[in-house]
Amino acid sequence: MSHALPADAHPIVAAVRRFVETEVLPVASSLEHVDAYPHDLVARMKALGLFGALIPEAHGGLGLSVSAYARVIEELCRGFMSLAGVINSHTMAALIVLHHGTDEQRRRFLPRFARGEARGGLCLTEPHAGSDVQAIRTVARRAGDCYLLTGTKMFVTNGREGNTFALLARTDTTTDPPHRGMSCFIVEKGHPGLQVVKSIAKLGYKGVDTAELSLDGFAVPAANLVGGVEGRGFKHVMSGLETGRINIAARAVGVAQAGLDEARGALRARPGDADALPALADMAIRVEASRLLTYWAAGMKDRSERCDLEAGMAKLHASEAAQEVAVGAMRVMGPSSQRLDGTIERLYRDTPLMLIGEGANEIQRLLIARQLLERYGERFGALTSREGEPDERREIVLAVRRFVEKDVVPVTQEHDLAGRYPAGLVERLAELGVLGAVVPPEHGGLGLDPLTAVMIVEEVARGWGMLGALLAGHLAATWAVAQHARPEERRRLLPPMTRADFLGAPAVTGSVAARPEGSDWRLAGAVAAVENAARARLLVVRAALGGAGAGGFLVEREAPGLALGAPLETLGMRGLGAADIRLEDVLVPASRRLGVDDRQSAEAAAALETLTRLGGAATAVGIAQAAFEAALRYSQQRSTFGKPICQHQAIQLKLADMATRTTAARLLTYRAAGLMATGAGAGLAADMARLEAAETAYQVSLESMRTHGGYGYTKEFPVERHYRDAAALLAGEAGSGAARRSIGGRLLQEETG
After folding, report:
1. Which residues belong to the active site?
2. Alpha-carbon distance 703 to 725, whole Å?
3. In whole numbers, what is the pLDDT of the chain averaged over residues?
4. Residue 59: half-sphere exposure toward Cβ, Cα within 13 Å
5. 556: how many CB neighbours lie within 10 A of its CB?
6. How far apart are CA 46 and CA 573, in angstroms?
7. Does the pLDDT value for residue 665 go beyond 80?
8. pLDDT of 721 higher than 70
9. What integer pLDDT is reported at residue 750 of this predicted model?
10. Are the C-beta atoms of 602 and 571 separated by less than 8 Å?
11. How far is CA 733 from CA 247, 561, 583, 615, in A?
12. In whole angstroms, what is the distance from residue 187 CA to residue 190 CA?
């Protein structure tokens, strides 16, 4: 996707982008290779107010939201990741004072932090304590009106150039667990007993100093004990991890975007190289999904919602994506990527840090899994809370969820095994108004927007992928009629389609041509495996026009020249009634052409394709969600070696990856639906969502089967059905190399920035 700033972005984000493009990018490589601290750039960041980014205006800061701060970090890292390190460690120290300090500490430190006079950092990690913070050995002994600190701190960003650190130490070494005896101090340089032992040489992340600090009886005033009470330090530093992980995710997004930009630039320089387009598509999807996860978590933080799980998922996905994009860009660029005067080799060295920072990803996965188990247990709906949605949307989606759990889930296995069409369930969907979800109220529908419709399809597919696919196709057909058909056709078709008197289905793939015959049209060609063609009475057909482009046409089942093949027996989506169709000079009256001219008809055809792919994406997300929830439940019910398998690390790693990937696919799908709802071009976004969601449904259903072991391979459990249904999506257009090449080609045509 193009890297344009959102319309509601804080003005500081645009200012940082200009700073990066005019001042950072020209010097980043030279500064990095000599490993020189970027004094001039840091001075400019200070002038921009970035050292007070999250400090409230009342204390002299910018008072940014976490979302705006994340965008600042992303922009900085698109130019030079080391700059983000300078301000982020500083910001984390400032936040500890802001949220946990005494009023006197806030007055004393926050204005200095905001001005950049107090240059902050975090002193947590030690030679024997990384992710396991409770293993620290630094001690603080009370001596009158001060504490004497002794110990060693490792990997301290700003350790040499900084002067004011938030340091965690043990004030009581006898407590069990150890964290109850930990306290946090604001440590200021300038007194005996604190020594910068060395600057640590690193693979990447150069230009910012990373140091080892030694404390030997270093005196810290008791007034610098954060909050003024011992034993609360562990809580103080842990409270900042949500923001810290969102920061790492934003860093990763910025670095990944830089890699994507480099790869896109290289391919634009060699326009005949179509072989690399699928790789470009995959990189772009990973970057966009990571960005959406990052700002999803940041938005929750801004709303003061608990987001430790979500921030961890964002950090995990974005850091892994940055690594993959750096390697992918290197492959696209070939030998030139190795040049030290280029950007890619620096990104390749920088990205491993995000896999490690703020908790190594392997530890992060364990934390995500434990939080999933703690929050959701065996309940349905993990990670799909509709809180915060508009009332109407939340009510209709939750009503559909109740219908799925009560009416769909209990009968799905029986219907699937028999390959039976669920006529009764379709009637119930009509009674709920769901078949008319996108139909205007004047024609008997609910008049819902595409995003709400997508959520409904996801909920239905979570109960049964086949029913979700049927609904998605019907909604695409009704949307085409409601938005682009002539008024008389709307009045004739929409009310019975809303009541389930007859169903519609889109036919957008294959090869169908339209030629004019007077004011009417003749359609000829074929479309393979049209979903629900065996029962749909209305087909909405995309056909190529004689010149350029395509149009949309309404073809009823009884139309002379329309031939339907026998329902196909398929691996998955049993009962859907997919069939091949052939059109042999089918006459379509002018009144049944979508749009009143070629331009409008082309717009209608494009919208039909977009909504069809959105429906496929939502169906895939629903299948992935069902497979993930099945694994989450089973992992708590099944025991091996004397404990539930959810307590085994191998299963926890799988649960974390399943949840994270499913959420990323969901956010991509919702974003595309949101773009369509606002009238913005959603075609590329829908194609990216469809591709990623189909891959996700397959991967998650397979991992769920692994989690279930032998039982997952049997008909007694729904996992094998999810796995089969995912194949229908994976084998379709979205899973093909042609889709990736198409996405990659359009990415090259986009304007950047």
Report:
1. 358
2. 15
3. 94
4. 26
5. 16
6. 58
7. yes
8. yes
9. 79
10. no
11. 36, 26, 21, 13
12. 10
